[in-house]
Amino acid sequence: MNISSSLNTVSSSYGQQKGNQMKTPASGEKTFYTAETPKVYQIFTTDNMLWTGGNGTGLSYCLKYADDSTDENPVVLAKGVDENGKEFEQRIYINDVNPSNATVVEMRALEAHYKVEKQGGFTSLPLEAGNMGLNDRRDFISMFKKSIEDLNKLGRFDLSLLWTKSMDTYLNLPNANSKYK
């Protein structure tokens, strides 16, 4: 019985390059088999990376400063894969990001550029940001307010204070450095 006719066969040299497990068929020829799977991207962190990660939608990307970025006009490059598996690259002009009408990628760029303290070491953004796609725009300030209200209703005043601190940080960013006004 020849199983390889119903599976994708990839040469052994390709398998060795990719570090995949090899199977040896009865004929002694080295091959391995792969199933059809969606694209999976792995983003490596380097010294010049500001941030790398993703969210629950499949959006995955890294952030780094553009070559033409300056202190007066910081520009961040976002490069990755959107929630549909399509590669993207964007330029984010930090001075133009409005937390009341921003994408999750723009907010991550703000978070990284200003080194905003992350709640629990993970994020400074409302948890709903984990459901946003690449081009989804939201009012992050309203998202913070809703989360804070919900936490207060649950009696979680400790967490409410943490999210209030994050919200206040984003509300005060343009005032924090007069050169970004």
UniProtKB/TrEMBL annotation:
Residues 1-13 have a biased composition (Low complexity). Residues 14-24 have a biased composition (Polar residues). Residues 1-27 are annotated as: Disordered. It comes from Agathobacter rectalis. This is Uncharacterized protein. The lineage of its organism: Bacteria, Bacillati, Bacillota, Clostridia, Lachnospirales. It comes from the Bacteria.
